[in-house]
């Protein structure tokens, strides 16, 4: 018996060693077994109910809001009146209050090739109370329309807050599914972090800007009630010198205003806001970002300003991902990674969200900053000071999914799946946040991928002492 037991234990030891050695060698990232076809989904037809024009002469349409200052006490309200300028005034009042405030905005129009826009209004409301529900009204007479929003709680380290993550949305039936699933998610998002590529109007002949209008009407049902934080993508560039349109970002900058001056930025394409316990930095993949450029200088000054004891969560939004193992757009973010990854690690950015690739991917915490061209250290390594990189360009636009992946799955890639969907970033306190990715095909209640994010600013012992409280 003694000999048999010894043989058995030897066998167990050999098997364990084999398993360990295989797991050392194997790549542990997950490529989802979900298989999609890459059929293109058409945009919803112009007479779809989601594009319905509100009734009434010159009724405001395409209503959307975004944060209007640096800390969340301001809101920019934007809308379009189709027939005449009308009023650029917003009336607003706190819930349970009869006292109406009034903010005066301004109106603009723009032309793009053979298209002339409606009257686009932008109005900033300032000095709101934190954590308060406000009603607001735009338009005049019988055509006036009412909406509401809730301001975020006062900025502070342990303020829970929930963000939705949407990218590359477009206006197909899949786009509508993504937005509906976001709205129906039992974890209610309070603000959308949008990682670029809005309407895809530029995929139409002459960049048909009517598709910017339909997109504005489609998203109003959510964007009029909660702020969408905008990032510019390549489909916002609309650079078409052959059409006599050589100025980049013309439709986007006329339609979507952001509070860039509040963070001392000189451009709407890069800026920052604080919201609850987060510090959000928006970057532009399609503006100059090399050393000495305005964007570079701004970020160089910006990162040291972030007070992690006030806003422990440091989040970066950009359009083109720095880590991407799909074939499509492979390495497009590489030049930006070479310049900025070192700062992201130094300043312990918690998570970098990007879009562009029409699929989902989450990275391990890795960095690739040791490489200097001649030393051969070109493989990303595990780095606990590095952010998690999440690609969420899977909103569902007319260009369809990308399904082709680089093989084998690189070690930096933790999970990848070519499905449409949306994300929820649910911040619990200064140390813990939960990120879930919901694929459309499962219905709203199923998360296909999730991760607990442990805040990078605090040491492991500080994190566990907060968790124990
Ligand atoms: Fe893109």
UniProtKB/TrEMBL annotation:
Signal peptide interval: 1-25
Cofactor entry: Fe cation; Zn(2+)
This protein's UniProt keywords: Glycoprotein, Hydrolase, Iron, Metal-binding, Signal, Zinc
A matching Pfam family: Metallophos
InterPro entries: Calcineurin-like_PHP (IPR004843), FN3_dom (IPR003961), Metallo-depent_PP-like (IPR029052), MPP_PAP (IPR041792), PAPs-like (IPR039331), PAPs_C (IPR025733), PAPs_N (IPR015914), Purple_acid_Pase-like_N (IPR008963)
Enzyme Commission identifier(s): 3.1.3.2
The UniProt record lists the keyword Metal-binding: yes
Enzyme class, UniProt record, top EC level: hydrolase
Protein name: Purple acid phosphatase
Species this protein is from: Carpinus fangiana
Source species taxonomy: Eukaryota, Viridiplantae, Streptophyta, Embryophyta, Tracheophyta
